[in-house]
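Quick start: read one record
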Amino acid sequence: MAMGHMLRKLGRLFTIKTRFEAWLVIYAIALGAVERGRHYLETYPGYGGWTLAAACTGVVFLAGAKLLDSVRAPAAAVAIGPYAESARRHSPVSRNRPTARSTRRASESRILRRTD
């Protein structure tokens, strides 16, 4: 029991909680990626080294986007602004679910309704 509690406390140290911490991690990943890219340029001169270096630095964009998306923005920052109504209109549960299209006649274009 005590060991599990200590591991949980240790794991909380490595949890990214704020956007500032996420930016610090992204910066560290970028430094490592650039250094690794330099190593590839020295080891594989030519197009192969440039391709591997570009892949290293490109991964930073993907990882950074995932990190920033995983950290929640403060609730007050989302609700303030001119678009606050549209932000509250959609529930986060139904965002990725497909919606059924309405089959009302009024929603069709005039060309499709023409019967001449």
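The CA atoms of residues 40 and 95 lie 41 Å apart.
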